[in-house]
Model the fold of this input.
Amino acid sequence: MKSIFKVIRQGEAFAIAKQDGTQTQKCNILLQELGGKFENEYIAVMLGNMASLKFYEGDLVAAKLRFATHEYGEQVYQDITVQEIVKLKN
Done:
């Protein structure tokens, strides 16, 4: 999904272990579709160098999100990953 979003909040970046034994950075960002306070919101993950980018509440961004699902213990989970994100001039 490619769209323009408003940033609601962004968490701090932290290190996570990858399957190959190395580490990478990860942070969560809450994005909301434009149109008002009741529009859809998405909590997405930013990985690697992207996790070091800093966005602030109210920033407008263009982003491409990747949606995926996986099963674990008879539960189905949805993952949303930011593939690309660019801050728009306010």
Summary: The CA atoms of residues 61 and 87 lie 4 Å apart.
